[in-house]
Amino acid sequence: MKTENPIAKLEYKVILDWIKRSSSVLDLGCGDGELISLLIQEKQVRAQGIEIDDQAIYECVARGLSVFQQDIDTGLTEYVDKSFDYVILNQTLQQVKKPDFVLKEALRVGKQTIVSFPNFVHYPARFQIFFRGKVPVTPSLPHEWYETPNLHFLGISDFIEYCNQRKITIKHSIFIRKNKRSWFFPNFFAEIGIFLISNEQDQRNRENAYAVNAK
Amino acid sequence: MRGQDGSVGTVETKYYTFDNSTKELTLESGEKFGPITLAYETYGKLNPQKSNSVLVLHALSGDAHTAGFHKGDKRLGWWDAMIGPEKALDTTKYFVICSNVLGGCKGSTGPSSINPKTGKPYGTDFPIVTIQDMVNAQRRLIDHLGIDELLTVVGGSMGGMQVLQWMVSYPDRIRSAIPIATTMKHSPQQIAFNEVGRQAIIADYNWNNGDYYWRSAPERGLAVARMVGHITYMSDVSMAEKFGRRRKNNGRLFKFGTDFEVEGYLRYRGDKFVKRFDANSYLYITKAIDYFNILNGKKLSEIFKGLKAKVLVLAFKSDWLYPTYQSREIVKACKLAGVDATYCEINSTYGHDAFLLEVKEETHLIKHFLRTVSNG
Questions:
Q1: Do A35 and A9 meet the contact criterion of CB atoms below 8 Å apart?
Q2: What range does the domain containing A47 cover?
């Protein structure tokens, strides 16, 4: 389910920084297991991956990872609430059939959830739609419309608004543009948004997140 | 011993008869039964730390002859493609053991063995044995070989049931487990197919209540049982690919001979089977499979509680005899118990037979899994 692009590396670094040593991690749509391997190596986490693609599963096993071949759209019913320190949806949310349901399940099963996704409304995409009248193809959205694994199209503001509506706490958010952090109007400039969220009703953290003006 | 091209070469079946102090085995039914002999084969070398043993568990019609060939016999062991130097179960690294199950007919004590009390074969006087009894007997063999902890237990179908039984009965004696194309308990459909096989045997006049060792065996019945079995081991697609609607009788009008190729194949399989398998063993072992229920009143979340072993569950998409939902149920139990597990649904059109045929995929998965277990 992963897409090849250089921005991925900084994404990994951000996620690596957020995750505490020796914690437990569930990576939904873990792809070939690159991120989990990194987390095990650098943070000695106890990690479990879930992935649907045959080839990706074989690669995970070759890396010595524990992984379940499963469609995450069917939910995580076997896991009790808060059974992982972190649930990761790295470049996965936009590819599932039921993002709302999957995110709810992730928040239930994880004490904290990390979500990263390509910002579909960053300016090169807007220009391509506006001036060329075509569905955008950019470094962070490299697929043509007929072959893209992405099923849902969201921007950074969309996600923040969604979290606010659902009373989901945004604890951290980092935006990436050309493999560098981006602070300036992320919804316009950033290619990728990464969020650390939880469903705790922590007002203080919520206010901090609001302070990030994503508009 | 080592042959060419990843073969273990010439091998010999060995026999272990339970020694004096533990001559008998208390069966799950409570009955004490003995003497018991297990036929087994080993490939590769046990390392000085005794930490490299792999126990392979065979399916309904399998036996201890898993790899290589016997002297003067070209027939390869039933999982030869997976066992040998550089193969999935690499005999340059691992000490591979496989024994014929209790109740079998290929060297281990079963209904066709001589009952020392009567001097005649047991027949239906043979006690009811279960998957757990088979595993308890295997544990004795492992004790006898001086192995405290197995690197892994691996098997498909009924072999997979034994893997699950090892996970539950002897969790401290396995470092990992690989149940393939199996289930925690038979569904009514699976029991039904087995029952058709049993009825074919029982309906054969020659079965004679299991007392046939001195005369003709119920070969027709056993052959029909095997034919039913083979239908369930294949898939719609694999049969279409293998036989299509091709005819054997050159388009002549039918006379209830083997008109279609698929019929010829099933008859061939049936006829071949009766030469190597005992009808009473078929009855006993299929009953053991049908009665198997690893949950046995326990909750799904409790069954693997505290299990430290790493688990690799494999299933095949076209397997309709042991559908993938049954393997997913095993995975679910692992998740609920927090067991370190991996699950792969291998894309295959071979049906249940896939566990014997999808060598490339299984080799990749098992090889890497075992490397991880060995290093971990």
A1: no
A2: 8-211
Which of A62, A69, A78 has its CB closest to that of B368? A62
- The one-letter code for the residue type at A197 is I
By percentage, how much of chain A surpasses pLDDT 90?
75
Q: Distance between CA B28 and CA B15 in Å, rounded?
A: 23
Which residues of B participate in catalysis according to the annotation? 157, 319, 352
Kindly report the nearest CA distance between residue B314 and chain A, in angstroms: 10
Residue whose pair of structure tokens reads 């309709």 in the numeric block: B320
What radius of gyration do chain A's Cα atoms show? 16
Chain A closest-CA separation from residue B97 CA (Å): 24
Domain boundaries of chain B, sorted by first residue? 14-187+293-375, 190-289
Residue A208 in this model has a pLDDT that exceeds 70: no
- Is A54 within 8 Å of chain B by CB? yes
pLDDT tens string B227-257: 999 999 999 999 999 999 998 877 677 778 8
Q: What is the pTM of this model?
A: 0.93
Residue B346 C-alpha, separation from nearest chain A C-alpha, in angstroms: 7
Q: In this complex, how many residue pairs, one in chain A and one in chain B, have their CB atoms less than 8 Å apart?
A: 45
- Per-residue pLDDT, A209: 58
Q: What is the pLDDT of residues B336-369, one digit of tens each?
A: 999 999 999 999 999 999 999 999 999 999 999 9
d(CA A35, CA A15): 9
Q: Which residues of A touch B328 (CB under 8 A)?
A: 70
**For B190-289, which CATH class?**
mainly alpha
**Is B310's Cβ below 8 Å from some Cβ in A?**
yes
A127 lies in some domain: yes
**CATH number, position A159:** 3.40.50.150
Superfamily of domain B14-187+293-375: Alpha/Beta hydrolase fold, catalytic domain (3.40.50.1820)
A41 lies within 8 A of chain B by CB: no
- Total structural domains in chain A? 1
Cβ B343–A69 below 8 Å, yes or no? yes
Judge whether A8 and A1 are in contact, CB under 8 Å. Answer: no
